[in-house]
Design goal:
Pfam families: Gpr1_Fun34_YaaH. Helix content is about 70%, strand content about 0%. It contains seven helices and no strands.
């Protein structure tokens, strides 16, 4: 008797939806501390590791499977950023011992913010050829890192700290919208939530 081979369609998560949700959650929680609505970073660390770090790394791995170089690079880089930042907060607060805490220099984290600012600038150019919602997210991330590295070095500290805080809160809003659009547009099969067309400047 001949066996029939039934082809089963493999369902893979939408990396944009999960990655943007991870970004939205961690920036929402982290922005409350910068805006003065909450205190300390202890309550942010779990979200930095689980949603900001692991969530975005999962999204990156699925984007890589889809051969999406831009998405895989972005989610991996920012996922690793949140893991590194979370560890820096733990060092700063003495989790790895008093000796490590005593040697902590916040300017070193400021240099990392500067590096991520440079990275985000050229990623923002790339985002112009994805969609306008994603472009706004990258533009706001650039303002976030600009505010973070300037305030880390004590340059117009209050002004740049507030710039970072507002940018981070707005990132959360746009990222929640982008995640919702990715899920609902795919689920309904039509553009339920518009995200805007690419600018069409660099890519024709």
């Amino acid at each position: 008797m001949k066996k029939e081979h039934v082809q089963v369609k493999q369902v893979i998560i939408d990396p944009t939806a999960i990655g943007l949700f991870g970004l939205a959650m961690v920036t929402l929680v982290a922005s409350t501390q910068k805006l003065g609505w909450t205190n300390g970073v202890s309550g942010i660390v779990p979200w930095a590791f689980m949603l900001g770090g692991i969530g975005q790394l999962i999204a990156s791995s699925y984007d890589a499977k889809h051969n999406n170089l831009f998405g895989a690079t972005a989610f991996a880089a920012y996922g690793l950023f949140w893991l590194g930042t979370g560890m820096s907060w733990m060092v700063q607060n003495g989790l790895f011992g008093a000796a490590f805490q005593a040697m902590y220099d916040p300017r070193q984290l400021g240099v990392a913010f500067l590096g991520y600012f440079v990275f985000t600038v050229f990623m923002t150019l790339g985002a112009m050829e994805t969609n306008k919602n994603l472009f706004m997210i990258f533009l706001l991330i650039a303002f976030l890192f600009l505010g973070l590295f300037m305030s880390s070095f004590g340059i117009a500290e209050n002004f740049f700290h507030m710039m970072a805080a507002i940018a981070e809160f707005l990132i959360a809003i746009f990222a929640f919208y982008g995640s919702a659009a990715a899920v609902l547009n795919g689920h309904f099969g039509y553009t339920f939530l518009p995200i805007g067309k690419p600018f069409g400047i660099f890519k024709k």
